[in-house]
Amino acid sequence: MQQQHLPLSEIVGDAAATAPADQAAKDKPAAPGLKAPAKVMVFQDAWEHIDLEGQHPAAAAAAAKPQPKKGFAALRALKPSAVLRREFWSRRRLLLVLLLLLAVLALALGLGIGLGTRGTAGGKAAHGGKARSTYKPRTSSVLPAAARKVTAAEAGDAGQLSSLLQLKAALDPGGVLDKEWTEESGKNRGYCSWKHEWTEEGGRNRGYCSWKYIGCDSTGEVVEMVNLTTDSYVMVLTGTLPPAAAFKGLPGLRVIDIRMNAIKGGLPADWGTLGGQLEVIKLSQNFLNGTLPESWAKLGPSLKELSLWDNDLSGTLPEAWEDLVVMEKLDLSYNGLEGPLPAAWAGLGSKGTGLRELLLDVNQLTGMGSKGTGLRELLLDVNQLTGPLPEAWGALTSLQHLMVSENRLEGPLPDVGAQWPAMRELWVEYNGFEGPLPESWGKMSHLEKLALNDNALKGTVPASFANLKALTDLYLYNNPGLTGCVPASLGTQLQVSPGFSVDDFVLDATGLKGFC
Fold first, then answer.
1. How far does Cα 120 stand from its chain's mean position?
2. pLDDT at residue 161 in the model
3. b (16+ CB within 10 A) / e for 192-212
4. 262-314 tens-digit pLDDT
5. What gap in Å lies between CA 176 and CA 194, rounded to an integer?
6. Are 42 and 11 in contact (CB under 8 A)?
7. Which residues are listed as membrane-spanning (predicted)?
8. How many contiguous H segments (helices) and E segments (strands) does the chain have?
């Protein structure tokens, strides 16, 4: 049977009628063919035809019936109460979700700001110096974990502040730090925030680990580093090194770095009592004088790096320093040290990871002695060394950089090329070496720079040198006794190095006829 539909005017009239009319509509029998859910359809159809800005389109034609309500009032009149309640709770749920999202966003922003503040990096100054490896300060205020962590209770705020002020008094008689290192700005652990522009305001709220010259541990409570290295000499301290007693209140101190200043006087002998605590001492590029204290051998249990280069130190190398058993880097370059390298120093770095760098260039040393087998960098250039290069140095199988230039060495070059597979730079120029170039030197496959100029070498360039595939710099000039030619493959490699002239650096003042 065909379904019958109510006229639109009758739908609107029923929906907009008064309460008695609504009750009558409830009692009115359903139109033929209209199913029970017709009333839901009535409201749905009416919702679709409501003009939210005015009347229903059929209202004018139904003049005898009451005018429908306008806007949302009409919607509320036409919608069943269940629909209205559902809409209310839906809106409420939406509002709650929005509020929750806003709260989560605010929390995330707060955490981000906090982490950003705590993560500020410490001083990051790369200072000038020699072309070889130069130290760059740590870029983070949080140092690696020590063998034994000192607690804040052990350190004590008052003790740390007192020691730091004693350190200032010794190092800074000129008052460079007077406006920064004050008792007032150091209160409440404000010393962990002391900088070159230190102010009382900057020391508040424990702005730990935003320091530049004072470094605290990860808790921001225990001083672990004193780094008074200058930036291009913008701050120059002119005092002397304090006695060990000045560090009594700093049981967690591990690093002392006071490079590039004008500190004068000698190395305090009683610093040896700080053994087991200090790991790094850097006092390079100052005006320190006197001798190397034998008592510093007591720093052996903890000291890993000692840098004293470019001072006015004199005397001999203490044999007692063989007790520096965890030493990894020892730099005594650019001083006035004399005498031989003690044979006992073979024990340097015998524990831990081993001695990696021994830098003794530009002194007045006269003997070479023994070296640790784990050495990677050995600098002895510009000294007064005599005799041949020891064959025993073939045991330095980890060696990567060897410099013995500008000495008084003589004799044949050691036939140890096969024992130096890691060698990258080998500088032996300006000596009195004589005889042929060792065939085994062609086995140093990682060799990049080889300087043999200004010696008395003779013979031909070994064909094995063609295997030096990494070589970019070769200096053979001023060896009149060299004859023959250089392996052709090297010619292509050497031309790649910027500023390298084959005529000037390879062939000049030799008997070599070019490449073949």
1. 12
2. 75
3. bbbbeebeeebbeeebbbbbb
4. 999 999 999 999 988 899 999 999 999 999 999 999 999 999 999 999 999 99
5. 13
6. yes
7. 94-115
8. 9, 23
pTM of the predicted structure, to 2 decimals: 0.68
At position 78, the amino acid (one-letter code) is: L
* Closest C-alpha to 154, from 281, 254, 248: 248
The dihedrals phi and psi of 189, each to the nearest 5 degrees, come to 60, 25
Report residue 167 as tokens. Answer: 């350190």
What tokens were used for 281? 């001492």
Map residue 314 onto helix, strand or coil.
strand
C-alpha–C-alpha distance, residues 306 and 327, integer Å: 8
Q: How far apart are CA 66 and CA 234, in angstroms?
A: 91
Pull the structure tokens for residue 303: 């000291």
Closest CA to 332 of 299, 365, 300: 365
In one letter, which amino acid is 467? N
d(CA 157, CA 138): 24
Dihedral sign for Cα atoms in the order 57, 60, 62, 66? positive
- Among the listed residues 355, 384, 360, 382, the one whose alpha carbon sits nearest the alpha carbon of residue 371: 355
Question: Token pair of 314, please?
Answer: 């004199």
One DSSP character per residue, 83-100 reads HHHHHHHHHHHHHHHHHH
**Of 425, 415, 419, the residue nearest 397 (C-alpha):** 419
